[in-house]
Amino acid sequence: MYDREHAVMMLTLAKHDLSALRGMQDSASFTTAIFGFHAQQAVEKALKAWLTIVGRGYPKIHDLEELFALLAECEQPVPEEFHRLVYLTAFAAQFRYEFFEELTTDLNRATVIREVSEVVEHVERLVSAAGSSP
Question: What is the pTM of this model?
Answer without folding.
Answer: 0.90
